[in-house]
Design goal:
The protein has about 1400 residues and is an alpha+beta fold. The chain has a ten-stranded mixed beta sheet with strand order 1-7-6-5-4-28-29-30-3-2. Strand 5 (about 150) and strand 6 form a beta hairpin. Helix 24 (about 1045-1060) runs antiparallel to helix 25 (about 1060-1080). The longest helix is centred in the last third of the chain and has 41 residues, at about 1090-1130. The radius of gyration is 56 Å and the shape is elongated.
Amino acid sequence: MFSASLNTGAEGAPLSATTTRGRRRQRPLSSDNSVQQPKAKRPRIPLNDQTFVNPTATTLETYEVKSTRPSVVEIKQDGIEESPVSKNELSFRSKKARPGERFSKGDGSTLLSTNVAFDVRKLPALPDRLRLDATSRQHGSSDSFTGYALSLSHTHAIVWPYATPTQSPESFTFALPYPSKSSTDPLPLGALVPPSASSSEPGLVVVMPTGGKVTYWESISSATTLDFLRQQRNGIEDSVPGMFSGELVVQIVNAESAAGFILALSSGRIAYLSVRDAHGRPKISTQFLRTNVGPSSSGFFGSIRHALSHAALQGDFAAVRSERSSKQGECTVVAVTSKGRLHSWRVHRGGHHDLLTELDARAAILEAVRKVDTVNARFPPESLKILDFCCVPRDSDRKYSEMSQLQQSPESEDHQHILLLASLTGKQLCRYTLVEAVLSTGVSAENPIHIGMVRPISAYSTPPDPHALAKPRLYLPRPNIIAFLVFDHAAVVASIARLPDSPDSQILEDNHLLPASFEDVVDLRTDPTLEIVGSGIEEPKISSFGADQGRIPRVRSKNPAVILLVRGAGTLRITVTDVERFASEKPPEVTAKIKLEQAVFFGVKADNPLVFDIQHGLRFTDAEYGAAALELSREVLTSAGKQFSSLAVRVDTNIKERVQYLEKIMAQIKSLKVNLDRVTKWQLLWNAEKLHVANVIWHKHEEFTSLRPATSKKSIVAEIVEYIRSEEKSEPNAAKGEVDELRHWFLRDVDRMEIFIAWAYEVIKHNSKANLDQASLTCLVYEAAEIYNSAIRDAFAFRTKNVDLYGLAGEELEHGILASDYAGLPTPWTCHPFIANNVKRQVELSTEWAKQHWATGSESQNVLIQRTRELLPEMTEIYLTVVQELSRSYLASDDPKKVVDGQKYESVYHKDRHDKVVLLAQTENWEAGIKIAENHESLPALAEILTREIDGLRHELETPGLSPEKVEKLESKMTTRENQVREYFGTYGKDFAFPFYDYLFTTFGVDALLEYDRDKTYKTMYLRTKPELAKVSWINDIIGEEDIDHAANTLLDLGLVREQQVWNKKIELSLGKLARMAESSRPSSKASTSLQDGNVNGIAGYAKVEAIDKELAVISVQDDLYNTQIRPVVSVALEGEELSLVQETFALKIPKKYKILSQIFDDALQRLLNHEALDSLTLIDLLTLITLPPETREHMPDQFFSAIRVAYNGLGGAERIQAERLIWRRCFLREDWTQLNNTTLKNDNDVVEVLGQTDLFQFYCTLYANQQSGADKNNHRRLAPSEVAGVYTETLDRRFEKMEKSYREKVLEAMRWEDGNLLKHMEKHRLEQWAKETRKYAEEAVNQQYDETTAAGAAHSSPRSESARRQSKAFESMNGQNGTH
């Protein structure tokens, strides 16, 4: 290693530009003064056991090149201190690779980000000095032709092969002979020098900005071995002559074809720097180029002028670039100021140059930018600034030229083809634009500049940092399709490809509009240590590119790439994946999903220097982000995409990584402040639940297999995957080595988790049908219970825990499910109908299995059965929650079919929250059952479980032979439960008390209900609100409450309204009447009761008693009919033949067309036989349609008179009037008026006798006799045929209101038939007159009978006249037929 200094003349004096040969080296005068020869290289030795023993000192391949000149900063000075580095002696060096193969093998890089257009990788090679010192000020560059990167600090220059695949590459550290004096000074400038003919390694030139000191090392590798040749240093240290006071060197640009470098100074001057003489030997010389921007001459006055205008002129040059010429030893140099002034020179080897052009392009650039991009019009024109530019490569063939929006580069070297990076700045925003310009340098050029493509950059708008260590850079690598913009904390990849010709593209071009092209930004994390301090490009080697055919780059790339030197991170490479695709019909496009993928798959890495939550100008809608998040979430579940492997050595690790991806999706969404819709949030959460459950199930699988014997390692998890139908899972590809179906499912099919869980029960069912042995089935039952419990339970727990993360903090959850508001949501996966159905079956199966096989198998089986029994409560809880969620979801659906199913599931839930909880009592899970019943508000189940447990404890106490301790324990537990019941009375009130008494009554009967003495309030309330328990309630009113009045009301309400059995009704009404009378006779307990109150109560009581009497009167009619007519017939009938015999005896002959009347009659007769209390209208139908035999009809009052009594006592208002009309009509129709009206050849006595045989005559007699005797105080109306015609022919009574229309039509038709017969008799047989005559003779007969009775002193004789008796006997000869209906 060496650092040469010039020792001829004054120290630091510049060499003359005319010096061409160095002075011959003189031999030393003696051996004492001779320079020691370098040590011989250590010979290579064969490997042995000690080869890889760690030496005492670290042998890093780092070489320090240190100047022999004493450094002025050996110690800390002005805040700059030399960092300590290893200065180990070089032992031996590894073999050098040939230039063409050193960097061609695997680069060992780490992928930091990727998308459809490019990859971002971190290269492993980084000198340890840079890795350890990530905070110092530094900048640098990379050179793909040499394969090296350069980093410069105030004190050192470090060179290393940046693309080598090792983390600690062979690096070279050069201590600068003229370090900066202050930390605020500009950083040294440097560049790598192309290798000389005698070396394969590049050289290095470093320029100090403040003093212009120049140091040149001919070869970075030989510098480490040639330090002893001090005379070689002569002529390779110098300084830029004629620099003004305060003038700085601001840029150094390689002008390779001219064998030198271009220096840009802050004053605006440009200098040519040569590091070799005409013979190729190291020599530094400097020559200034002519320009009008700044002074080109030195001198005292020039220095003063410069000092006065230093602030205005400093950094005026935006960039200086050189372009290789087709002529050997020439290059074209172009310089652009920040204000848009352009200069170009043709520079020859040795510094000779010609000024080609000098023009102000600001106005042309501004006009073009504003014309194409309307956004630029919003920014002030004075803010236009040129940040950088690059020369457009000329050697692109026609194929790629047609792909680019840039113009074909002119063949003549009189034109310079450049691409400018311009900016317009506003309030904290900056609009960047790429502007193509062609400079004409010919003498006769009419238009010195032509503006071509104008490409706005919309993806990045952050203004450049004026304090950044590196200026913004623009790169246009071959083949001129992709441009890279490098800033201090970001890099932009922008396409300038021309889209295929189409009508749309033509319209855009005609209107000077550019179609949307690919743009994306690579951002660094917000970290003070991270900053892009240098950059460079890598170009693909394409045969058509002939300008640089003589130079073969050591770093070869298939596609354009940009190298970023990032302080604090290392070397990053951004590589375009397929450059030609940008000019295809389907070019790469930045989508919300792509941006989300980058953040998810690469943002989870803690050491990733990139950040993905900065949107810049690439903004997407919330809907686009939502769709992207959902799609990406599904891909994570199914391991779809190149980021996922088809192999998982540890499934749980794989799942955990995917869980992190899902969490990162939401973190990124939140970071971008995207407002997802509610449905998307829930779907994302449900997907995360599935992946979480997959991890739980996998751990269960491993637990199952560890418990199973070695001969049976196939758990239910593996069985489920095998049994799932092929169309419901993805099949592994055996040709690719995918042979593990179970692991494949957990990698590819987690999105179908609901199918997996549902199949747990199906596996048991199929194995049971296959006659699997009991021990194996027991194991499957237990494992299935574990699957259902752990999977769904943990899904609900995960949901509850992560609602905030998924933006659902406002949702109300209970037991892990939504409490309400399912509108618009899909059905949650946890309540899939398959799951709901099979969890229910599994609960039932597990319960039955635990009951049947309890303590009947081996010890291992008993352990599993005991575990299954312990799992039943949780599984029951899960089942009820699942069904509840399913019912709520379906009921909120817009699908009518789902709504119907939701109602069904709701009823199933209400039923099973009782039945399935009570089922836990069969496995003695008392405490769990109580808890679940409370959770699901199943108070009937709660009451039943408590009651059953108390009863079980009571029965256990009755077991003989119990120890006192056992008895005490059982009594204590029973007391605890009874006290718990009492507490629930206070907590839940009647909601608990009523179900408790329900179960107590239905299970243990009336005695247990009445004898329960731990509560009175709710028991009385319960009985009084249960009409069906009115018979018990009135007993409790008297015994428990001593409330006779309420007991009377209960009995009367029961008898009048609810009782269906006639005998019970009679008793209840009688007892109620008795209780009412007894209560009314008791003195009032309140002394303040007024007389008026007493009167009111008395009137009300009288009205109640009157209603009772009327009801009892109706009952008495029914009793008379049954006792006098029906009972004698039933008593002689065979068992089972009672109804048919009664129908045969009493049925009226009715035509089949009107058999509906027979049905009404039969129904009433059936109810009479069943001792039901008939309603008044039904009883009237029965009385008016029945035919009474002669031998029994004398035993009851006239049937039509009885019907009138029923109408009067049981009906009221218009309903009673209609009923009376029906009774009279049917009475009129009992006779054959055709025969009665035919009196031909009949004497008067015969006519009167026949008339006396009619039911109408008997009806009139009974009415008149009761009226005359005072037995019936009601003055019943005698209706004429004309008054009863038309009854029930249009509308029917209230019994038929809710019946089907067809049935009502049939009844109306029968009524009209009756009415038609009546009208016929009225019109053709003088029924109206016959009715009057019959009434007259009936009343005369009754009067005559009463006269005879009075005369004979027989007051209790029947009012029926002897003639009536004779007429009745005559009627008997007619076979008991009263006529035709």
